Task: structure prediction
Amino acid sequence: MTTADLCVYGGTPAGCVAAVAAAREGASVVLIEPSRWLGGMFSAGIKPLQDCPLPEAVGGLTGSELFGLGEDPLTFLHAVHRWVVEAGVTVLFERRVRRVRMDGTRIAGLDLETSSPDAWGVPLPASRSEPAGQVTALCFIDASYEGDLMAAAGVPYRTGREARSEFDEAPAGVQEPTNWTPIDPYREPGRPESGLLPGIDPDHGLPRGAGDSYTQAYNYRYYVTADPARREPITPPEDLRPERFELLRRYVRQLAAGEPDRETLLARLRSIFPGWINSGEYNYERGSLISIAPLGLSKDYADGDWDTRSAIWREHIEHLRGLHHVLSTSGEVPVEIRAETAALGLDRAVYPHTQGWPHQLYVRVTRRLSGRYILTHRDVQNRTTIDDSIGLALFGVDVYPVRRIARTHPETGAMGVATEGDMFIGGHLGTGTPYPVPYRAITPERSDCTNLLVPVCLSATHIAYAATRMEPVFSVLGESAAVAALMALEGASAVQDIDTHELQRRLVARGQRL
Result:
């Protein structure tokens, strides 16, 4: 049994900042991290300042310390571990929540289970997990990407995409297709009865603006190299059945037939694999019909058990292995790309503990708290008045494709394949003006839970979350959540009852920008 004043669940940047902030204020803190690595996406590919278009809007520990822990994943990983341990935080690695014990509307404690990742960092399936102790605390912060503590406590949450009409959000719900390409989508060309090729979802047929269960794509933020001293070979996928890669082959043939400029063709093939080079690491290329992540799986992740989630992580790896295999061996691929792709492997110098694979899948969105305030597109546009701000956010509404479907061309009627859901409204700077995130957006309703704060899976619509979901924002909210939790402990009160003006005063004194 581990006992503490505060339990922080999830060693994400937000979780690390929350734990350090509380420990430095004299609280006993236990940080639970299901993997064996701290830092979340900052130690798995994203640079601390990469998604921070206005650093001067970021204060507190995030701006003064977290941003300085390193600009490459391995440096950040080692530095954030030292940072957390030196603050006096107790860290429990390779443990995740199995059950939450409630006492009325308060979380009394957690029953944990094992969660040791495999050699490539993939989480342990639920069917292989075993009980692994208990934690009790007076207050809890769920800083995980999945919101598992929140969900296990019975706190309501949202998943998927809201309809445009639900919150009067013009960009919400189903979107017009993008990347339409004249490819026959059927296993047997011209025969719909033969079924869709693997990699294409059946179209639910809902109109534009309708809500559905889909959410944006995940992917690895990985590094590749041709340097033999650093290169970890990318081996072929386990499943080598031809039909698994038929869509990719048809796409390659279509690109080769339809693109007369050789250099443009080669660039488009590189957008399939290794993808879009972002800041040294590779990311999903949203302008390509096929890129470095499978589409449609993310909708099953939020409420999936760890058997389902582990399989989804694995499928992202298998997808990348498949792209590499086809583009380096298929005779349909131009010889330059075959040679170039075959020479590439994972850069094990960046992720030495997991044979070159990042130890964290970029899980962009899962559950979203149904809290006392729901952020909407109006908040992102600075069209609301917030008097309980605990931090600022600024980014465009950034949604990667949610699915790949068979669709006729709206003008010619020709059958083809398209992606759907992609948008990036406003680019990195969004509206250009930071918007406040209210304390109410990280607090559940009083009737749901009175000693839990949720700074990562915060209360927002799919559209608002798509602009707010950046790691610097989560980290700022993590520190604010820690200060709020300590105020609730001081006053022996519910997190909903603390004086938000006093909270803001303390946050400003810590350097937070509100």
